[in-house]
Amino acid sequence: LPRRFAGSEKSVWVEYIQLASEYNPLNLGQGFPDFPPPKYATDALAKVATGENYMIHQYTRGFGHPRLVAALAKLYSQLIGREINPQTEIVTTLGAYEALYSTITGHVDDGDEVIIIEPFFDCYEPMVKYAGGVPRFIPLRLKSEVKGRLPSSGDYVLDPNELESMFNTKTKIIILNTPNNPLGKVFTEKELVHIADLCKKWNVLCISDEVYEWLVFKPNKHIRIATLPGMWERTLTIGSAGKTFSLTGWKLGWVYGPANLMVNIQMIHQNSVYTGVTPIQEAAAIGFETELPRLGTDECYFISMPKELEKKRDYTVKFLSDVGMVPIVPEGGYFIIADWSPLDSAQVAYLSVAVIMTVNNSNFDKSDELQAEILDDINKPRSNKRKKHVKTIKS
Ligand code: PMP
Ligand code: GLN
Questions:
Q1: How far is the CA of 383 from the centre of ligand 2 (A)?
Q2: CA of residue 217 to ligand 2 center, whole Å
Q3: What is the ipTM of this complex?
Q4: pLDDT digits (tens, 9 = 90+) for 8-22
Q5: Which domain holds residue 373?
Q6: Is 363 found in the same domain as 234?
Q7: Engineered SS bond to 236: which of 141, 248, 257, 319, CB 3.0-4.6 Å?
Q8: Edge-first strand listing for the sheet containing 113-118
Q9: Which-ligand-closest: CA of 179?
Q10: Which residue's CA lies nearest to atom 8 of ligand 2?
């Protein structure tokens, strides 16, 4: 094994999905929706797949299917307030994963330092190492003791002095992920301005992983760091159709940024992947074309989806705290981190089963009733009743 790969032999995702297929449990180990994607998206894919235009099943333009880059350019030109060139300032990729890979590999040289904010999406570290870079970690820290309320992901902040001490002449990139996986933190404007100022001071690039850009709960606001003064020139922003339209299996992502940086991404992409999946890109383009005219309105999926998810967030937070865990209330994203240490381990295993039910649409309506029963049962550990519930939940 080449030395640069050492330490990355195992992947939590590979292991969990394998275990899930062997034992068929409720899979809490991975973030993907268990409700259907918007109908217009799946209808579009069906139509594209069986339509008369058979050329849609052949290779498309390498740096992005023309119809999709046109739609993405329209969308992000509006969102970031500058005209984006679909030919030179966007590349579509095989999921945000490939966007991260091509962006990191296309910019990191031997010995370059890359700042990664903890907790982070796990692939950042191996990707930086594969490219010969040196990851430097800085944690989000709880800003002060939280009393009389639940902690929120917003209580976790970067220490400004610590952040400043991370930058030096070897620093090439900072990877930002807002909303953050797994904490759910949505970085505030003040925090982003500090990061941006340091990037400019030290001539550092920012890779901004914004795959959860639409999954932001009120009153938080997603701010694209590329829109801050002097940041377009040094920011590469990553998105994912999987997260945008709740169809993670489509594995379609993109990067946008200034043309002089995009050429490095194009180079890695053309020599490792060459081109993306044509029918998927065509269908996603139709998805964006559907949403573009209703952007910002209540009918827009990018508005309705986080609203739906927010209810489930609140429900799950309440449920977790009612049973004695301490959840960190997420401001965005798919995930909730909870401190389960106040509970004994038997209860934790039991609750895991119950919690996933609350996020499963098909059972969401029934979950109040079940929760009451579970809460009642939790006070009677090791009773036969518990076994009965586990059975009910499984079925
Ligand atoms: N970045 C983050 C923060 C993610 O959570 C994910 C998916 N889990 C990705 C990137 C990769 O997205 P995709 O499925 O589009 O490759
Ligand atoms: N986004 C998902 C998560 O973070 C899954 C990532 C993956 O499958 N590699 O849970």
A1: 36
A2: 20
A3: 0.95
A4: 999 988 988 888 889
A5: 300-394
A6: no
A7: 257
A8: 90-93, 253-256, 235-240, 205-209, 171-177, 113-118, 134-139
A9: 1
A10: 13
